[in-house]
Amino acid sequence: MSHNAALRAQVSELTSAICRQRQLLQEMQTRLHNLQTQLDSIVYPILSLPPEITMEIFSRCFQPERDSVNANEASLLLTHVCRAWRLLALSTPALWSTFCLSAVADIPHLSEIAQTWLQRTRNCPLSLKIDGPLPNVRIPQFGEFIEAFRLLSHRLRALELHLGVFNLERIDTAAHPVQFPHLQTLSIRLLFNQDPLNHRGPIKMFDGATLLREVLLEEVPPSVVELPWQKITKFTGEQYSPKRCLEALRLMPQLIECAFAVLGDVPDNLGIFFHPRIQHLTLFESHSDLGTQAASMRILEFLRLPALQALRLHNVDGFDAEALNLFLLRSSPPLRKLSIRPLLNLTSSRAAPELSPAFASLGLIDLEIWHTSRNFVPLFFDSLRRDATFLPRLQRLAFLGCGARYDGASMGEVVRIGGAAIAARNTLDCERLQSFRVLLADREAVHSFPAEVLLLFKNLKASGMDLYIGSTRESVI
């Protein structure tokens, strides 16, 4: 074969190969089209939901702790899934109702982000959380932060600040005049190792927040911040001395609900403070204090609260039954709920209120006791089974954390003694017990009980009583 003929043969062969490849490509394109048509025809359940339901699902996608100005958080992440979800996310004001800022100095164009966020909230109230130190006043980021803060303040319903004292003063000065016409909830916590008394003057930016009703201050004395104290109805003071607690209470004549984590020494000259409106009181130990110098129970020595309906003593160190009894005698409150949970450590005392006339005559509906003492259980149930005037309105009873202490009442003791007492109680001329819960400490194994004890509780449950006896994972009834 000549050279020319060989070249023509190669050209012909390549041309044929190209035709075959084109045919294969055409076949693959046809298959792709058919597969895509089938795929597009599939109805995904999430995409078939009405927009209103999808938007409600979106609004529940938040983590308890979040940094909203973050591409991995729900607000921004949902806008990158698909076009339909982006439109829905941008049309769901609840997704944008919380604006969390941490490491403010590292967020560029903060004022522009705040403006966009506000537009997406529409008329939805806004919550703002600022966590961590602010940028230095001399750098541009501080000016951007103040501009964003002013912009957001007019729409805020809730504000949470975790800053240093000087940061608060800088905002107060640089943002003046700033208004909070819709602010209802305010929380101020100081950064670690900050001295709340090391400040130039009171923070004044909140004194015109006429709708403010709920306030939390951690380590911040009432004198440090000017608030519409006369209108506050709910207050939490963390790491407050007994004297500071009383100072705060005197400022709030309309207070209905309050909580204190009290620490420090108790002065000798504190008198009894009378408050006619407080209905709910919680005493607890601050997580940041870790129980050192804890004195939350001692504040009861200086209070008279004749309107009190709910008292919660949670993780208190040094439970004092006598102090509780004297408080009840002094206040004669219409108490409906009592929850006692001592701090669980080797030195704390066990939960065992005195079975005094002041306690027995309470109109309690709900009684919850953690880590109760072994001696208290038979005395309590003996009174419950035979005396209709002992806690005559009691409907819900719970013994929780059984077996958490080596010298505390076990679950077996509570169940064996309590079962017969409850059955007898329900024959007396008083309120029938409607709910009984006995919960083990988490590390304990569920007990096995004699058949007659289980039968007794099964009969109580069949009669309509709400029963739970076991661990956090399972009930034996």
TrEMBL record:
It comes from Mycena venus. This is F-box domain-containing protein. Residues 46-101 form the F-box domain.
